[in-house]
């Protein structure tokens, strides 16, 4: 409650059973405020609506006024909003590879309108800053109707991320920044990776979706499947503004949507944004073109630095010819292309995406993930016989995908038409990396300039890329934050 001339800090004081207002104070005008102490977590428990009744009694007579109110929903931030700060995990002093990655990353930020270096968070050794929380916000009408509010950092319900996610509470929460944890007890059979926040992205606004729509990956959300957490889905749906869309990410070793799709602002275009989408068919076509021109003997990963153990084993150093002759490799990419097509069909139907909004960038996937390596090592230690043969067949049948060429869609959207992508390390022909040439051209056609950062050892070998290893705080309180106009 705010009394004109009151003595409480900033003129506000808490209303309690003993609060009394005089007739004179009411005539002068008293402002009553209601502060929400929590967010809407599940519409089945509370839909965010309440009512306030003010009853005034004088000379034995009473009069009442009633006001319906709604808790401000938590909206996730959009990549179309300007970057204010880039976040990442702190590095170990002896981790020279990651320190080199951070130096390159920080060097790319000023060109994208970010004047401060990336901010290191104490994530207790968790590299994946994107996965520990999703930045969101709440807003109400402020002076002149302008949005006024606070950030809300939504921490991961992934049990493996909970220690790292505490940084949202210990280092970031404070004045106008809140952190929220959605409680979830994991089932022993579930894939908790689906609850990492790299698996939650937001399609920017389109007709019928003024605040965009959340996309979240999983096994299709069918009964008996393994994720994501129902409590997180209930929370996202309860906000009532960015109804989540389910995508199939079961074809990926790390089933996160940011492995194959990213959204970036394109002012002046039909929707004001476009989607960067990984294109394995284009990646295979590039390799076949290299082979056709007589360069099939070149290494697929050209220009590699000297690799020490175990990275010399983690980076597949075969030739283009050898990769194209490998049916497991080509089959993995063909399967990935089919699954990406299926997901794009969902985004066309539910989020306003059309072919005009798609920036296709060549990509290559492999089945030779960390899981593949562990199974391969197990097989090498087995005696010949039926058990070993069965394991070998299991190895050869693997098709779950992880990036072979560092994945462009898993990059960092900055300001002023700038994008930070991982250095692809594709085949080098006539002194040029054919993948970086094709990626640069694809972005140039939509008015973007790409900065390449080497994340090969610092991040890529851990089955992530630049987007996975960073997070951003963006300027969210622009005109698009006025959700109350669209309720």
Q: Any descriptors?
A:
single chain; 487 residues; L-arginine/glycine Amidinotransferase, Chain A; 4-stranded mixed beta sheet; 22 strands; 23% strand; elongated
Description:
By secondary structure, this protein is α/β, with parallel strands linked by helices. It has two domains: 9-70, no CATH class; 75-485, L-arginine/glycine Amidinotransferase, Chain A, CATH 3.75.10. Helices cover 26% and strands 23% of the residues. The protein contains 14 helices and 22 strands. The protein has helices at 23-28, 96-108, 129-132, 162-165, 167-172, 230-238, 280-292, 311-314, 320-325, 327-351, 370-380, 386-397, 434-444, 466-469; strands spanning 49-58, 61-70, 75-76, 83-89, 119-121, 133-141, 147-155, 177-181, 200-203, 213-218, 245-248, 261-265, 273-279, 358-362, 365-366, 402-403, 412-413, 418-422, 428-429, 432-433, 449-453, 470-474. The strands form eight sheets. It has a four-stranded mixed sheet. The chain is elongated.
């Amino acid at each position: 409650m705010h009394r004109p001339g009151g003595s409480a800090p900033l003129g506000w004081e808490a209303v309690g059973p003993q609060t009394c207002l005089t007739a004179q104070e009411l005539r002068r005008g008293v402002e009553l405020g209601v502060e929400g102490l929590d967010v809407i977590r599940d519409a089945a428990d509370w839909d965010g609506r309440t009512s306030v009744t003010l009853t005034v009694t004088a000379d034995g007579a009473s009069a009442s006024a009633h006001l319906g109110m709604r808790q401000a929903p938590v909206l996730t931030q959009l990549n179309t909003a300007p970057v204010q700060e880039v976040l990442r995990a702190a590095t170990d002093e002896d981790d020279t590879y990651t320190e080199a990655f951070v130096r390159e990353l920080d060097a790319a930020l000023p060109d994208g309108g970010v004047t401060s270096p990336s901010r290191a968070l104490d994530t207790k050794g968790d590299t994946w800053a994107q996965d520990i929380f999703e930045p969101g916000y709440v807003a109400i009408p402020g002076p002149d109707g302008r949005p006024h509010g606070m950030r809300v950092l939504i921490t991961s319900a992934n049990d493996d991320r909970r220690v790292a996610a505490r940084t949202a509470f210990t280092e970031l929460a404070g004045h106008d920044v809140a952190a929220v944890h959605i409680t979830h007890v994991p089932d022993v059979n579930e894939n908790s990776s689906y609850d990492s926040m790299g698996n939650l992205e937001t399609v920017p606004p389109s007709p019928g979706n003024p605040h965009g729509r959340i996309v979240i990956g999983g096994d299709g959300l069918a009964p008996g499947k393994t994720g994501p957490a129902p409590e997180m889905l209930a929370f996202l749906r309860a906000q009532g503004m960015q109804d989540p869309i389910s995508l199939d990410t079961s074809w990926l070793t790390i089933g996160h949507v940011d492995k194959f799709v990213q959204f970036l602002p394109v002012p002046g275009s039909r929707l004001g944004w476009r989607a960067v989408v990984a294109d394995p068919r284009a990646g295979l076509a590039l390799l076949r073109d290299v082979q056709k021109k007589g360069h099939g003997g070149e290494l697929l990963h050209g220009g590699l630095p000297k690799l020490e153990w175990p990275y010399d084993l983690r980076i597949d150093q075969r030739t283009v010819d050898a990769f194209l002759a490998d049916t497991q490799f080509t089959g993995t990419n063909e399967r990935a292309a089919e699954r990406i097509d299926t997901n794009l069909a969902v985004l066309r139907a539910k989020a306003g995406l059309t072919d005009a909004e798609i920036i296709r960038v060549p990509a290559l996937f492999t089945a030779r993930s960390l899981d593949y390596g562990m199974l391969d090592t197990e097989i090498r230690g087995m005696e010949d016989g039926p058990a070993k043969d069965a394991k070998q067949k299991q190895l050869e049948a693997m098709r779950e995908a992880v990036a072979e060429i560092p994945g462009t869609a898993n990059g960092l959207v900055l300001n002023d038409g700038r994008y930070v992508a991982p250095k692809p390390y594709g085949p080098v022909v006539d002194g040029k990396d054919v993948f970086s040439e094709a990626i640069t051209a694809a972005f140039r056609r939509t008015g973007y300039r790409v900065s390449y950062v080497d994340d090969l050892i610092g991040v890529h070998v851990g089955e992530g890329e630049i987007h996975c290893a960073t997070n951003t705080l963006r300027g969210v309180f622009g005109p698009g934050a006025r959700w109350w106009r669209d309720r």
